[in-house]
Amino acid sequence: MTGLDTNVLVRYIVQDDAEQSLAATALIEGGEQAGETFFINQIVLCEVVWVVKGCYSAGRDEIGRMVEQILRTASFRVQHSAEVWSALTIYRKTPADFADCLIACTNRAADCTETATFDRQAAQIEGFRLVSSLLD
Fold first, then answer.
1. Pairing outcome for strands 76-78 and 115-117
2. pTM, to two decimals
3. Which of 75, 88, 14 minimizes the C-alpha distance to 48?
4. Helix axis angle, 98-109 to 42-54, nearest 10°
5. CB 53 within 8 A of CB 45
6. CA of 11: how far to CAs of 18, 42, 132, 133, in Å?
7. Mean pLDDT split into 10-residue runs, the chain, 136 residues
8. How far is the C-alpha of 17 from the C-alpha of 133, rounded, in Å?
9. Which is nearest to 70 in space by CA: 81, 60, 61?
């Protein structure tokens, strides 16, 4: 199994740099044909979402489809995929960032009763608790 870094996965998905995209495609598609499995950890997945949103102006629907495609790709093994599927479901139903949704699901899977946050948007996710600051 080969782990994929964010930059390789982004080049494969967005195909924005001729040389690196070609190399990423050759690696992944060549590996698929040879029966290789590629590991995508949760940090890489969050970074990919951040890059396609921030640098390529991808919308929520596009990001949701991209994450789902990654999860459904047979040659990709996503770290704690059940948590990522749950996070994707929450992401599609709320205005929260994907990373916050994944934090909620990962913490829940680790038996956290709640996740404390100052982020008002994240606090709307079940399992988060808004921590009031002294300035509120």
1. unpaired
2. 0.89
3. 14
4. 160
5. no
6. 9, 18, 41, 41
7. 97 95 97 96 97 95 98 96 97 94 95 93 90 66
8. 44
9. 81
